[in-house]
Amino acid sequence: MSELTRPVAPAGGAGPTGRVVAADGAAAVARWCDRCGGSVADGAHAACAAARSLEPPRWCATCRRRMKVQVVPAGWSAVCVEHGERRG
Amino acid sequence: MPEILDQARTRVLENGVGLDEAGILAVLNLPDEHLPAALQLAHEVRMRWCGPEVEVEGIVSLKTGGCPEDCHFCSQSGLFTSPVRSVWLDIPALVEAAKQTAATGASEFCIVAAVRGPDARLMKQMRDGVAAIREAVDIQVAASLGMLTQEQVDELVEMGVHRYNHNLETCRSYFPNVVTTHSWEERWETLRMVRESGMEVCCGGILGLGETVEQRAEFAAQLAELDPHEVPLNFLNPRPGTPLGDRPVVEGKDALRAIAAFRLAMPRTILRYAGGRELTLGDLGTRDGLLGGINAVIVGNYLTTLGRPATDDLKLLTELKMPVKALSATL
């Protein structure tokens, strides 16, 4: 199954320092903060994690590409051209 | 009781005449110990002149990001280093968003685009989208597409758009500090055309952009002069990468003072909670505002940020014994 067709993380997603789960079930360690795009190795990104409760992710946690994000009244979707779609 | 609240009781509550700029400023400057009395009076004014119903609305971004304007608060400007990318919503997803909104009991669904003003592609997307929504969903459709030409105003009326949102954002004297790519007067001109078209005028702004308390009062007085059907009240949610990204959020008590002051300036308007209330007021403050002059809410998510679950707001309205305004009441 293509990784591009299913969410790679559940609602709320892998937080800025969480793990990203691909559609085939394989887990990958998030290398980048999905809110600010900074390296998770640089710190805990606690402020980003707090802010993410009221924001969708903007950066792919795996490759740091900016994602195309659509917010709708009852959810959001974020698409990385390389790593597929997440929904929340 | 402060003198301004005594005056407001007669002028606003009994006679339905909004406070002038000096009176608004006096409310905004009330010390904390008098805030509960101001909120109580604003609530009485709202109940007297608007009634207990709350108008519920959902919003969605039809075209996100890539905007050529430089509104300093906005993450959708293409001129800043915001991470928000340009994206368009397709018609099936737009209809689904309208259905999600209607399922909450909302009577309003506002379609928003991040543009200076609509081009032919956006107007076609609107025409197709509004037609598809009207066919599938029982809800009033509003729009917010930036500055309009007279032809575009006429087209929106023809589509069946019943309300148009165009925020002045802040007072006239502070506007050049917030936007440099167009003027406050250009926005006013669109509002004038919208009003003359027969569409309902929705016009509010954002508090916490760096304006002074005096300028906040100036803004409320200018809105009162416009006399819009609805005033959405946002509190700045500082967005990364924007010029106002490092500004502090509005302090909760200042936000509540503003809610009371805006209600006392505009006793009959729909005063709506819009973006930023989750950060500025939290759950308790949201409740205080609904008991202090607010009579409408945006439920669910916003354009690029997330809101409280709609169920939380609806539960709160039930607790407060504030009925959701039925669609039939808006027709």
UniProtKB/TrEMBL annotation, chain A:
Its cofactor is iron-sulfur cluster. Residues 67-86 form the Biotin synthase auxiliary protein C-terminal domain. Required for the activity of the biotin synthase BioB. This is Biotin synthase auxiliary protein. Belongs to the BsaP family. Keywords: Biotin biosynthesis, Iron, Metal-binding. The keyword Nucleotide-binding does not apply. The keyword Nucleotide-binding does not apply. InterPro entries: BsaP_C.
UniProtKB/TrEMBL annotation, chain B:
Residues 52-277 form the Radical SAM core domain. It catalyses: (4R,5S)-dethiobiotin + (sulfur carrier)-SH + 2 reduced [2Fe-2S]-[ferredoxin] + 2 S-adenosyl-L-methionine = (sulfur carrier)-H + biotin + 2 5'-deoxyadenosine + 2 L-methionine + 2 oxidized [2Fe-2S]-[ferredoxin]. It is an enzyme of class 2 (transferase). It holds the Pfam family Radical_SAM. Binds 1 [2Fe-2S] cluster. The cluster is coordinated with 3 cysteines and 1 arginine. Binds 1 [4Fe-4S] cluster. The cluster is coordinated with 3 cysteines and an exchangeable S-adenosyl-L-methionine. The keyword DNA-binding does not apply. [2Fe-2S] cluster binds at C110, C202, R272. Its cofactor is [2Fe-2S] cluster; [4Fe-4S] cluster. Belongs to the radical SAM superfamily. Biotin synthase family. This is Biotin synthase.
